[in-house]
Structures are given as C-alpha cells and as structure tokens.
Amino acid sequence: MKRPVFCVALAYALGEVIGLYTRTVGEIGIVSAMLVCVGIFVRKKKQGKSACVLGLGIGLGMLGAFLRIPQDLREKPDIRQENGYDIITYATGGETQGKPVICAGILTDRQGETWTMRVLDGADVHGDILLRGVQGEHTIAEIVQVTGTYDTFEHVRNPGGFQSRSYYLARNISGYYYAPQVTTITVNQWEILGLPRYLYYQGKRILYELRIRADCQIAKLLPEEQASLVSGILLGEKSRIDAELKTLYQMGGIAHILAISGLHISLLGGLLFRLMRRARVPIPVAGIITIAGLLLYGMMTGMSLATMRAIWMMVIFLVAQMFGKSYDMPTAMGVALFFMLLCNPVRILDAGMQLSYMAIAGVSLGNYGMKRLHKKTGFRRFQKRYPLRFRVVQSLFYSVTLQGMMLPVVAKTYYEIPVYAGLLNLIVVPGMTVVVAGSWFGLLVSIGTISLGRFVMLPVGWMLQGYTWLCERTLELPWNTLVTGEIRGWQIGMWYGGIACTLVLLRTKTRNKLRDFVYKHTGRFWRKREVVRYTVCTILISMLLQGAGQALCVWQQRTEAIYFLDVGQGDGILIRSPDGRNIVIDGGSTSQSKCGTYTLLPALRSQGMTEIDCWFVTHTDEDHISGLKELLLQGKLTQIKVRTVVFSAYVFQDAALAELEAMIRAAGITIVWMREGDVIGDDTFTLTCLHPTAEYRAKDKNAASLALAYHSDTFDMLFTGDMDADAVADMDIQQDYDCIKLPHHGSKYSYVEGVYAHADYGLISCGYNNRYGHPHTEVLQGLAQEGTKVLRTDEMGAVIFRSR
C-alpha cells in the first residue's frame, strides 16, 4: 500500500464522517458488522492486510466520533409527516438558558473585547470559556474570578444559521459569560500552576504584548483600512477589519488571504531554516530552532486550525530534512489530519479546517497531475521551448485542481460559489508573498524609523487597495456568483466520488485491467483506440456524478415550502411557490440584533432564494421590518435582489413608513399597494389580501396589519401580522386552513375564540422568555380546547412546511 500513513488518516476521517450519521448504538453496530464481514472476505486476498488496516482506521474513527462528538451535534432536524407535506423543526427545545456561576481561571487570549479563559476552579464549568464584554484592564496570564451568567452555545435554529456550538467546541471552548464581573486574584501563580504551566502562560503573556505592540505599530504605517488587513494577515487580529470588507473579500473568493496558514508558515519557516543553514548551523539544531519559532508564532497569532495544520506539515518537512528523508505532502497532510482529529474529533465539522485541508488536497492533486504530464515528451518539450506559457498553463492547472477540491466545501459553507474566484486568485495569491514579506520587513524597519517603515509599506498598501478594487469590479461582472443553496452530504460525496473514480481509472494498472476486460468481452470494433474511449468514459462518469448532484440540488430548490424563521421577538416568513417564485412576509426582530444579517440573509442564501419576487410588509413595527432595512442598507453586498415590496393600501401612516418607503425607492425597488381581494399568483398558487378593508377603521398600526391567505394544491395558510382581536373578528374566517400564523406573537389581546378551530396548526412566532409573556397562557389554553396543535419558534426553532 502506497502512502500508508495518508491512507490510514483518510480512513480515520472517513470513519468520523460515518460516525456522525450513526446516532444510535444499533446503527454503529450494523456498520461495524459490515466492516468485519468485509475484513473476513478479503483477509486472504493479495491486498487483504491493507484492507484490514483501513477497515480498522474507519472503525476507530467511527468510535471516536460516537464517543467524543456530543450527541446533539449529530442530531438532524425533526421531521413530522402529514398528508402531502412534511413539517420540519430545527430545535428540540428552547434557547439555551444561562445560570449564575462563579469560577476562577487564567486569561489565555484576547480578540477585540472578548477574552478566552482556562478554568482552574469551577463547579459546573470546565476547559476554556469566553468572556464577552469585559470591563476594566486585564492581561494574559492573569488569574481572575468571574461572576455572572454562564451559558453554552446555541444549536442552529434556522436554515443556513451559523454553527456556533460546533465552531467553538472545535476550538475546545465550551461556553461563555456575557458582561461578567471580573476580579483579579493576587496569588502565587508558581505554586498554583506549577513551573511548566507557569512558564507557558508567562510566555503567552509576552507574545500577546508583542502582538499588541506590533498591531499598534502597523496602525502608524498604513491607513486604517489597509492597517486592519495587514494586522489580520500577519497577527491574526481580525477584530478591526470592517465587516463589509470581509464580506467583499468572501464574495470575491479571496477571504482565505486573511487567514494565517501555509503561506505564512512556509515563508517564515523556510526563511529561518535557510538563514541558519547559511550561518553553518547544523541541520538538527536549525530544524529544532525553526520548529520552536513556528510554535511561538502560532501561539502569538492565536493558533487557528489552519495555522495548526500548516505548522504540523512544516514540522514534518523539517524533521524530514533533519533525518535526510524526502518530504511527501500527502503523508504530511495525513499525519496532521490524524493527530488533529485524535485530539478533538469535533474539528471535522469545522468549515475552516475543511477548507484548509481541501486546499492542500487540491495542491497535492495538482502535483500528481503535473508529475504525470511530465512523463510526456511533448509536454517537456513545451516547457523547455515556451517557459512563460508553461508557467501560465501550470498556474491554470493548479487553479483548476484547487478550486475543484474546495468547491463543495465553499458551497456548503457559504451557499454560493464565486464564479471568478479562480481567475482572481491567479492574480492575488502570487502577490501575497510580496504582501507578507513586505509587511514583515516594513514592520521591522519601522522599529528604527517610522518614515522608512511607511515607505517600505507603500507597495503593500497599494496591493491591498488593488485587491479590494478587483473584488469590487468582480461583483459588477455578470453571473459573478453561482448560488447553490444548501448542499447535502450525499451531494458532496457524489462530487468527490467522481474525482476519486477519475483518479482510480487514470492508474495504469486499472487501465490495463479495463483494456483486458474490453478485449475479453467485446468485439473488434470496441477494441480500437482504447485510451481515447477510456478518457471519454472517465470524463462522462465524472460529469454524470458531479452534474447529478448539482441538478438534484437545483431541483430541491424548486420544491414548494413555507419557512417560519426563528427571529426571536418578531416575524420572518419565506415562501417558495410551486412555480419557483420567492416571497417574503415581514422580516424583523426586537430581540435579535442584526436579524437581517445573521438570520434572514443566511436563510435566503441557503435556500437559493436570491431573487425575491414580492416582499410583503404587514405593518411598520420594528420587529417586522428591521431585517429588510438591514438588507437595503447593505445593497449589492447581500447579492439579494428584491423586485417588489408590497404594502397594504390602508397601511398606518407614520415616520417609520416614510423612512422605509424612502429606502425602498432609493434602492430602485417597485412599491405596490394592495387592497382587499387583490390576488398575486397563477394556476399553481394564490396569495390573496383579506384585510384591512376600505370600510375598516384601524385604531393603530397593528390593527391595520396586512392579512394574507395562501392557497395551493398542497397548502392553505393564513398570515395575520400583528392584527388585534377586532381586526381578526372583522375578517370572519370560515375556511379551513392547514396552519394559521397567530397574530401578535400569541397575544391574548389578538385572540378570538372559534377562529383557530378551522386550522390544524397554529404557529406562534415569539422570542424565548420574552418580556411580554408571549404566548399568553389564555391563548395556549384556547388552542388546546379548539383542538389546534401549536408550533412555537421559541421552542422549536424555525418551522418549515415542505411539500413532498
């Protein structure tokens, strides 16, 4: 077996992936039995030992995932089957509820206003935790007592939501305090920590102070925007980078340059090692000093998962140099992957780690392809005659392999693919060597004289401005983004399966076996031009597997569905009609900050809803429009196009309406005023305005809420905004509905007896433990008496009605 370490590491990672989907002892037992049966079958075969070793690796990976990845991270959204449709809920309980806890620990890191603390003494708190919104001056390696409310990170409660729990667990952080009281404890740290830990934390303190000084020095050398980027690139200090600039780089496909990874580590490690070798330092000593320097740099910058992977691989390279062995990139990647997952299996769920390893896999795949091409005489001749053209072809080839390996993970993480990212990276990545090296040189020179440091930093600032300009121009190009929506695990498997099949069929032994099979079982016609037929078949198989995954993804986005998002104390409803139209009703919250950025926008992207045909505003309370206002302010950066915004013709006139109307017109969006009886739809669905009528006199903006009835072959639903009891009674509901969205978050002042007996389900959108007491007990009792089942976003997260 070639590259056994890499193969075992890959098998272990595959075992963890399988373990994520085996949620019970019975399921893991079935998979284990299947592996044992395969091992028994192949034990006497030529490759039997290799197969058994790989099977053992898969088994250990499954066991590690089953035992060490928390059960809640392996749970999937609950699906309730009804006649013709499914009801999907994202959470099994309410939001996490904090509890008062006093604990003591040592501060280990800081990012912006958030500190990381290692707990030394805590009854129910262990490991590393975050301290958010800390007041007062503190420093690394300071022992403190923390008093406040301790909470764990929430599960995903909406489609496309940020996986905060798995993100922080992958970094060994179990929970957080918000705005706690932090008191410094004066003790003898040597006695409490012991000598090794004392020296370790004192070293972290020195490195942290060095990072702060370097950050302040960079701020003196460049304008604010470029200085924040350089601090992120060199020091891992990203708290000062503008959020819109981060989004711009992400949408351009070059956000990876802000992460400290292989480029930084290889430059720093290679420079240190070569300088010491030039100084005639023995290879073992040079290697050990370089490894120590890389570890210190990683500690100073926060040791992200990408940095950790890069340091692991660089250490293996240096060890190979020390022992006079050749370096193999796939083997080094396998060792790094195995030990990182062995230390913390949750890391396999982290998008940053997935992207980091897929990038290295893409480079390894490019190396493999170039090695095969170099065996061709014509290719070597081309390289010798046209070196410049060869460089261009080589760069394009590596760009294709890199993007091919990273593409599914990018789509899974961001729900979209930057179409021009490959071309943009051909310009950006080569220049990053100049940016990183120039930034370090300018920073060192500025210690002696600021003016010389600024002069050295000028090209760095110009290049970063150029990168920003390129991203802005890219967004102006047509079809700059391919929205994929939510990618499933099996679709990713099909993509990588297609690549794996291509690589297997490219092997000479496999090709010879295929040729022998063709000769044995077919006639003369099929025995001609074997290589051409083989190549064509390989391409077709890859395209079939990869295309099928994407086609099924697009088909899924056309499925009729209605999404009641968990926006806290507010409303946010998404509708995908049977003919593929995208409709939004309201979208705002008073309990969630930046509801549009962190809830509405990810949900829309994850469902492929980037073009909104109609956005209905029932009324202009902040808990119904704050998300819409955020998206309007962000403009093109959201990549969400709203065609029409619909108001009631009798909407309550106030300053909030005037402000929102001005924002909509400034964005160039059409405004439609809807009256009772007006219908939007076609033969597949209708959305009808039921209220308010021309005769109805609303006493406030809640009473004037727009009421809409949705009808299709699958669903009959009623959306009521924040109507009060008089307005609900005025509608005189007689028709039966699958679901009625209760008005005003389940308020008793909007409840009318007998109305909800016409519905199978009553949906309540409200915040967990909100200060209004919604939903009121009288409403819940009334729904129970009428036989209406209750669905609550505060307890269940997002609720999705999806046709089969």
From TrEMBL:
For this protein, the record's NCBIfam families field holds: ComEC_N-term, ComEC_Rec2
**Protein name as catalogued:** DNA internalization-related competence protein ComEC/Rec2
Q: Where is the signal peptide?
A: none
The answer on whether this UniProt entry bears the keyword Transmembrane reads yes
Give UniProt keywords alphabetically.
Answer: Cell membrane, Membrane, Transmembrane, Transmembrane helix
What organism does this protein naturally occur in?
Answer: Wujia chipingensis
Q: Which residues form the Metallo-beta-lactamase domain?
A: 569-768
Report the subcellular localization.
Answer: Cell membrane
Mode of membrane association:
Multi-pass membrane protein
Q: What is its main location?
A: membrane
Q: Which residues cross the membrane?
A: 25-42, 51-69, 248-269, 281-300, 331-348, 390-411, 417-445, 452-470, 490-510, 531-549
- The source's superkingdom equals Bacteria
Give the taxonomic lineage as stored in the record. Bacteria, Bacillati, Bacillota, Clostridia, Lachnospirales
Indicate whether Transmembrane helix appears among the record's keywords: yes
| GO terms for biological process, alphabetical | establishment of competence for transformation
